[in-house]
Structure formats: C-alpha cells, structure tokens
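Quick question, first post here. What does this chain look like in 3D?
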Amino acid sequence: MATFLSSFLLPVALCAVALVLLLGLINMMRGGSPNRSQNLMRWRVILQFVAIIVTMLAVWALGR
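> Answer (accepted):
Ran it through. Tokens below.
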C-alpha cells in the first residue's frame, strides 16, 4: 500500500495539479474566459487538497 501511494498515486496527483495550473496560466495569458479561469482555479484547489491527503497517507503508511 505504501509503495502504491508513494510511487504511483502521489506523482499522478502532483501532475494533475501541475497540469491544471498550467492550463490556468495559459488561459490567463491568452485573455481567455474568466469563467474558465474560475473553474480551473476551483479544480486546482480541489486537486491540491487531494495531493496533500495522498502525501499524508503515504507518509503515514511508510512510517508503519
């Protein structure tokens, strides 16, 4: 379980956060829709929360 969290799920969560952040920056630089920027910001915050939870679970599982 610990290796699954730390070697698979954590990088996926971090890549998802980075991807949404990049999409938001691209949308902002191109002068895209403000509604899309808001949606991307919401998704980024949610994905950051998930990434933090996965990180804490991995740390907990590795410590056991």
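Residues 1-63 form one domain.
The mean pLDDT is 93.
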